[in-house]
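Chapter review: from sequence to fold.
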Amino acid sequence: MVMGSNVSLSALSENADSVIVRLGWGSPTGEGDADVSVLLLDGNGKVRSDTDFCFYNNPVAADGSVQLLGKAPAADGSEDRISFDLTAVPPEVDRMVVAASRYEGARFGELEGVRLSLADGSGEELLRFAVDDAGSVSAIIFGELYRRAGDWKFRAVGQGYETGLAGLATDFGVDIEDDAAAAESQDNGGIDDQPSTTAPAPAPTDLPTPPATLAAVPAPRRPADETEPRTPTRRPRTAKKRVTLPRAAKKTLAENESWREARLFPVSALKSDRDRETRATSVLLSVMAQVPEFGRRLTAAFGSPAGRMETFTEVTLPHGDSPRRPDGVIRVERAGKLWTALVETKTNGNALKSEQVQAYMDIAARRGYEAVITLSNDVALEGSPLVEVKIDGRRKHKVALWHLSWAEVAHQAQVLIRHEGVGNAAHAWLLQELLHYLRHENSGCHGFQNMGPAWVPVRNGIDDETLCQGDPRALEVVESWERLIRQVCLRLGGELGQKVLPVQRARRGDDPKVRRDRLADQLCLDGKLQAELRIEGAPGVLAISADLRTGRLRTSIEIPAPEQGYPLSWAKRLVRRLADAPADLHIETLLDGPTAGPRGTLERLRPEPADMLPKSNATQIKGFRLSLLKNMGSTRGNAESGFIRSVNDAVHRFYTTVAVHLDTTTPKTA
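The token string follows.
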């Protein structure tokens, strides 16, 4: 689409009652990001209340019609996903504006490939809109969904705001007051902040010109590098108080460790893979039905509407001469309409079978179901499906095929009960029991845990220098490495309650398979697997390097030199911040030019921070690289010494012992 054009969704798809909008962008440095927001507007072009302003601190509309699903890796950066259940939009809402804003002075002109795409409930992409010249604006309205004669249409807007989220929000009726009460509320964590809306005004024909300045604005983030206090701003709150579980476990009343706590979902009786699959499916689907926040979290990305959910197991469905029994069925009712998905589950290292999934796709198509969901320990990669299925193009009804990893299920449960909260304490306890079940060694729901049959031959080929470019086994290892990194992001993000995403430094428009072929060739040349993680709130990108020749894992982060002050004060301040970091932490000074800078362990540099400085005062310091080294496991599986476990441990250790001592103020203050 081009700017200003519009299209009817029903003309593009018969399955447009629910849609997924994706906002995407890339960055040459791999660090560019933005926050998405959605405003639900009445006929006067204004929000009705604070709950009509959906953003990172209020991700779900009160009626469930809009849900911000968070970020997902893409070939050339990341994509933010937004779920719209158009059947649940109240009749008084006339249009919904989709926007994104940058923060801390960043501009959209610094990003590449700024775009929007919209897919229907089956996952088929219906339209795409590229914002080619974003310029110096800090917020953009990408587009809007609006009603016309009972039909939903989409308009490509592409309007920029130099005043960022402030100008955008106030133009649509969000009025953030700034007074002493707001300051008190901010000190209390912002729980009681309550914005008010301005009186309705006539809806303009064209989008309004944003104001030049604003006294108080809803900032997407409070910069962590502020050195002087500022007047706090009031921000929209979530609709309801949420319940989270404390991190510290309560003191047990057991006499000794042999006393085992009674569990809602016991695992001791699981003896076979079939038992594990049946139990795991029933446990998961029952919790999804009983905890609406959790069920909605898992199904919204698959096009499910927000409504009453019921789940079933071991359902028999006719299929030719032999009926089929999918592991589970999910049904959601909204406004008299049903959304149905068949579920196929695998545990341990069991792989999904193409013929089995194909049969469920055929059954779903004939019966008018919307989706088939596969669930296993494997992690799906973009452009590389876990199972190959054939789609009969002659069929009018389309069925979407989606995949969930058990690691993703555990991640969503942990985020809800530890960070975002659920509706009540009983729901939090149910999710905690689910997490305990998934993490038990006997459940078989451990996530990605095997580097595959090519792992040992590739390591041996690198050791004896016989691995050649083009060897398909190298590509298998690269794909396994990418799956592992995605799982590492899920686990760390669940622990922190923050976004953790792999950085894909791909060329714009690269096919994922082409990128993996290139990485496989590089593995054959230098024997290294490398990845980068972007962690929300961290001062830089966390890099991971696995050297298969030396058997060493390196985790590191680069922090820029401060813009003010003296090099010696930089070195002293960095050493003070790392007072509790491991003594074997390596610190390297990065210099401007090809010359390598001084380096040493923290243990050696603590008494003499000046040793971090170059001998020549004329040499400019660009920054510092902090690294930890660890021997990596050699086995491919999930043993204690295994490679997968060693990568997880290395990332966890580096973040909890090094990165937490650094904040975003490090590169900007003396």
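Two observations follow directly from the output. The longest helix spans residues 472-496. The chain is about 25% helix and 25% strand.
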